[in-house]
Amino acid sequence: MHGSIPSEFGFGPPEPPRRPRRGWVYVLVMLAGVAGAVGLFAGALNLLMGHVANLTPQAEQRHEAATGVPDEAATLSGTARGLAEELDHVHEGIDVDWDASAARTGTGIDEGQVVDSAPGIFMVDTMMMGFYGTGTGMVLTADGIAVTNYHVVENSTDVVVRMADTDIEYNATVLGRDSEHDVAVLQIEDAPELPVTSLNLSTPQIGDINAAVGNGGGQGYLTSVVGEVTALDKTILAGTDAAETTSRLTGLIETTADVVPGYSGGPLVDRDGQVIGVSTAASPGETTEEVNGYAIPIAVALEIVNQVLSGEETETVSIGVDGALGITILTTDDGPDIQEVTPDSAAEELGLRAGDLIISVEGETVTTSSELARAINDRNVGDLVEVVWRDASGATQTGTATLQEAVVN
User: Where does the record place the PDZ domain (predicted)?
Assistant: First the structure.
């Protein structure tokens, strides 16, 4: 199988710019076989739906009781607790037309109802070396700290957010991310005091009515799709149509809402329009009965925001600009094949050349461009990494590279 893979160290052969239905992650059991995306990267290329993998069991037992569920805010710390207290029911929330959704007929995918008022919610547009992508996000502080899915901004060179209620655009910087939990923290730049998102940190109950809100298919405005909570503490395998890698996402809220690409990073709200989660994945299907959506509980997202703003990296949280080698990669049957080496880059200094094949990074075997991207993404500028590669003559080479600053998120 061959396919060009966008990565933090470059892109494969260019394609004409396009704005596909994207900004999404699908849950998989059987892996699809179309090359063209990186792990949770739902960026420049179309994605195909997979199947739900039910890996954890306890959601329903954990919430059998109708009362006594602890408030998630009680477990938060530092900035996360402060945000939870400041944003808890801070306003009336997102205006969802519940009656119109309830009156819907037919078995096809719900296209959603237009949302007229969504304070603190924005649409995301990203650029990736000539490709474009879309998603949704939420403002957490008036000075522009915001949250979306990491896969919405992964490998982007530019991030622009457009406030849903005003249509005003701002540039945004990725402050940090947790790829394991698919959360990115943004700083919206040069904005006046922004409206914030209103949250409900109480744990939802199975059967609760909710709605996902987002920029479906990059349509340029918000719609809402209504469903109900069917499981909590859900674990899924998430990947893209390339299926080179999958990620195990845990602790998710499952809903019957017919979420579609473009809702990624957007709010899942309760019956009062208060945000309870961050939409991140969907199961496949062509009818409403087949589709489920998955959201990260808002408390989990706030903890990641807290960690990023603390300035201290963890095993899963990276802050600031990642390290890079400075190469363009194409996935081939033999593995990650170097197509181009940037002049004066870490790769050139190491001795890598076009036509070389990367075998491992820091002792970790890499067989796809996705695996190579993640092996590099998890390291910082200035880190020393041992790289093993096979050169054009077939000889195996080993060397240590000092990672340079990545040009993409």
Answer: 323-366
